[in-house]
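Lecture 7 notes: from sequence to structure.
We start with the chain below.
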Amino acid sequence: MTDLARLATPHFVRTRASAGITIVRALLCFAALLSTGSAAFADPPKLAVFDFELIDTSLPGEFYGSKPEEARLDRISEQLRKELADSGRFQVLDIAPVRDAARHSNLQACGGCDLKLAAQLGAEVEITGLVQKVSNLIINLNIYLRDVKTGNTIAAASADMRGNTDESWSRTMDYLIRNRLLAPNYGRPE
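Predicted structure tokens for the same chain:
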């Protein structure tokens, strides 16, 4: 048998790489890494969370007013702000400069005044909310997340609750935050 291995040309030939090419390659890799990672380091969107509004068509509300519900509206509004701020996915803005104007408007039917108020705060996205009370056993909580520039609805979340207590309102808000607003890919087109 003949030794054919000595006649074959080597498939891998060692070459000497110049230092300039290695540095250029390293810089290109670093630049690519920075450009792909820049989205991860970007600031979260600025969010204005307006106080929730109430539509009380219940018989007790008609006769006695909605004092307990008004206090609950304040609590769930603050709960939503805190949870979204703590998530790190949003930069929640203070709405104090426009709170009075927002409270004297029906944000759900004011022809875009909510978007104008959010823009005054420098918000990129905004949340309005509505609680509709039909009775002490039928209450619906709705959250609307909108793009301030376009006015388009990014996400909407709604849940019914049974029972008119502080705990039921808080749990319903917690459910919507956890399973809708902060759920992976919620509000993104597929």
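Points to note: Helices lie at 19-41, 59-64, 67-87, 96-103, 113-121, 166-181. The chain is about 45% helix and 20% strand.
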